[in-house]
Amino acid sequence: MARGQLILVEGLDRTGKTTQTELLINRLKPNVELIKFPKRDTPIGKIINEYLTNANYVLPDQSVHLLFSANRWEVKDQITKLLNEGKNVILDRYVYSGVAYSAAKETPGMNWQWCFAPDKGLLRPDLTLFLTHSDSRGQAQRDGFGEERYEVGSFQDKVKSQFETLFDKIGNPEEVKLLEVTGKSIEEVGAMVWNQVQTRLNCPNDEFKYF
Ligand code: DGP
After folding, report:
1. Is the pTM of this model over 0.90?
2. 155 Cβ neighbours under 8 A, 6+ residues apart
């Protein structure tokens, strides 16, 4: 039996990532599993959730970064098992978010290379879709924006720039696709996503790849 495909949907806050992930899951049902990072229901995920939702919760940037990475390592075996069982696995955020959000803080010593180091050895997705928009400040006007720690327009600009650096440095162009969502409807973005996913599913990979 061929293994399932590992498909990552990445994006800035409020780019419609979660909506698109749900649409994709519906199209791929029943042979699909969704894993959303940070995975907030694990012991490590609970600390991360507290950090994100409680502005008074103090943790050094290095500790937070390593917790997010540990949260991905917690689930590595589960993802591998699902793929080996032939299930397609959709990830909502993963290594690129992990590095981009932490490096964007510009904490001394925490450049992208430092941030990437603890994720080396995690499974590399077969396809990564990055939902991006040319107006990250405009997204800050959307309902609900600002409720969590990183939802600040100026910070989102830095995150976007970190994502672009990362795709350039560690992303394989055959595996990473940038999808511009500015001015597009949910259906239009959904069609772009589905087009990329179908292409990937038609050319399955057998070997696992790792960061
Ligand atoms: P979400 O549940 O997708 O809205 O993500 C919550 C927030 O956490 C969002 O602002 C992005 C940020 N985030 C996601 N993954 C990571 C990570 O690995 N490291 C850091 N520093 N931030 C992350």
Report:
1. yes
2. 104
Beta-carbon contacts of 130 under 8 Å, excluding residues fewer than 6 positions away, are 10, 11, 96, 163, 167, 176, 177, 178, 179
Dmax over CA atoms of the chain, in Å, equals 50
CATH number of the domain located at residue range(s) 6-201 in this protein: 3.40.50.300
* Integer-rounded Cα radius of gyration of the chain: 16
Mutate to test the pocket of ligand 1, among 49, 63, 68, 119 (most ligand atoms within 8 A of CB): 68
Which one is predicted more confidently, 12 or 67?
67
For residues 24 and 194, the answer to whether their CB atoms sit within 8 Å is: yes
Check if 39 has its Cβ closer than 6 Å to any atom of ligand 1: no
For every residue of 158-204, DSSP letters joined together read HHHHHHHHHHHHH--TTTEEEEE-TT--HHHHHHHHHHHHHHHHHS-
Q: Helices (DSSP H) in 85-185: which residue ranges?
A: 95-103, 112-116, 136-139, 153-170
Q: What is the pLDDT of residues 129-171, one digit of tens each?
A: 999 988 766 665 666 777 788 888 789 899 999 999 999 999 9
pLDDT tens per residue across span 81-95: 999 999 999 999 999
